[in-house]
Amino acid sequence: MIWFTWRQFRTQTWITVGLLVALGVLLIITGRSIADAYAAANVAACSGDCTSAVDNFLYEARKGTNGIVYSLATAVMYVVPALIGIFWGAPMIARELETGTHRLAWNQSVTRTRWLAAKIVIVGAAAAATTGLLSWAVTSWANRIDAAAGNRITPEVYGARGIVPIGYALFAFALGVTLGMLARRTVPAMAATLAIYVGAVAAMPLWVRAHLAPATHVTPALDLSGFDQFSRAENGEMRITGGGGPSDAWVLSNQTITPSGQVFTGPANQQYCGPNNGPQACIDWVGTLGLREDITYQPANNFWQLQLTEGGISSPSPYCSPDSASGGPVDASPELPTTEPTTPRLRTASPGAHVPQSVGT
Amino acid sequence: MSSPVLQAEGLSKRYGRRPALSDCTLSIPPGRVVGLVGPNGAGKTTLLHIAVGLLPPTTGSIEVLGGLPASGTAQLAKVGFVAQDTPTYAGLSIADHLRFGAHTNPGWDRQLADDRITKLGLDPSQKAGKLSGGQRAQLALTLAMAKRPELLMLDEPVASLDPLARREFLQGLMAHVAEHGASVILSSHLVSDLERVCDYMIVLVASRVRVAGEVDDLLASHYRLTGARRDPADLPLGAEVIEDSHTDRQSTMIVRSTTPIDDPSFTVEQITLEDLVLTYMAQVTGSRPALEKTR
After folding, report:
1. ipTM for the predicted complex
2. Which of B24, B36, B45, B205 should be substituted to probe chain A, the one whose Cβ sees the most A Cβ atoms within 10 Å?
3. Rounded alpha-carbon distances, angstroms, from residue B15 to A127, A308, B12, B60, B207
């Protein structure tokens, strides 16, 4: 079965290897130019206020070809798990059922359980290895940029780094295999795999990820030196959002509250914030109110805890999460597929698979 | 070698409320080439799929070579199956298929497989998807043969083949049986395909086994009676009327009788296997409209 599984997936394997090599070459070439920019901007050697050194480096690293490769590498990390689910997972069983070759395969001297196990293990391992290698390459390539930008934990970057892509690839693969068994037709299974994968990857940062590690909650005094939002309406209503939280954190919520804990909405004092006053008078007045920022965020150093937990959730593995402290959301996760139900499902799927033949004999 | 190759007791398969196989009881002796014949949709594929373990029966029990179908590696190795439409992997070459067989069957007979492919004049590097229907059927048969099964089951293997390919396929099958002595169960909706090769016949119509037995016994116990018109009810004891037709003056009956019909008022004739099978098929479709509807 090992040889045969390899033989069936040989073409896909060579295509994958080819694409990986092409991307690898691209990363090596642009990686050098980024390292040069890093050295030129003197980021490593700077001490004290490094803002300008970092900004210079980021400007160089994100312009031209480097910028395109940066966006491409991030996109690839989201696209590859989907491709694995669509082109490796969905057709694996569906194509056999569709073309009737399962009747050939299941009548060799190999039990169906072993047949399925061999395919799932071999192709699943290839999926994990491919995304693992890819993610390692992209994560190390982007390491300096991510560190300089301090945005490793923000949703778009986070999902394209570390071990989470491996989890997504295994999830997409298991999803494709399962849907292929249920649909028994390749193209609908591929379409359904793509749809559910996109839904799951979008749902993760929107509803799930924030709860996978304990968030930090702080209420510092409102920082008057910079606002994300500062507006006053005709009727005196005000909306203020401070720039709060560490710059490298993933801010989940940020509200401005009064000393009594209410969300601050005004009213604006027309003496300072009226149409005839400049903004500074209004800001000075706001400063006298004793407002605080109410911020919830995932700090940058939660990155690996989140990665391990999310990687564990999305992987269809018998163990769920290496971190029992965040086991709650893991168990509650609706997208946790396990390989266990697929084996019996295959058995129950086979009767139906033959209905048309028996009718039309 | 006297225990049956296939023994079924009250075997039934239903798809929802529609019966695909009803109360099938069979005991097929070893060393036979068995023809499983019936019209399209009679349940032949269902019976064969149950026998190789691709389908679980709804009720009843089945043993193939003394074991449960597909119950393990040893059981799988004893049974060869060529499925309907002879599925092969279109993207893989003939050599790949043979390697697949070699890797997945402990009893793989490489010599047999290579010889057959050479004899058939096939190029091992050719993709199965590019083969003609006859060549693909031969490839599927080679795969099933080279695992050297004790029982070889084939589901309508020649249905889509032209007459020449049909003959070559059946010749190849019979040569293998003569050389290696495997039992064979072969289904078809055409009696003419089976007549020349089978020594045991099962007629399956509208999900039920109508008659099963050695071809010689069947031929020796069925007669066509022609004579002056008379009621089928007053025939000699032990003669069962399978089919009767009457004109004003004359009656023609096909009867089954274990003892020779010795009635001077009839002309007694032997019937051919084809007539016999068609009679059983017509019996159901003609006189049982209720069953006809369920097909």
Report:
1. 0.89
2. B45
3. 38, 46, 10, 15, 12
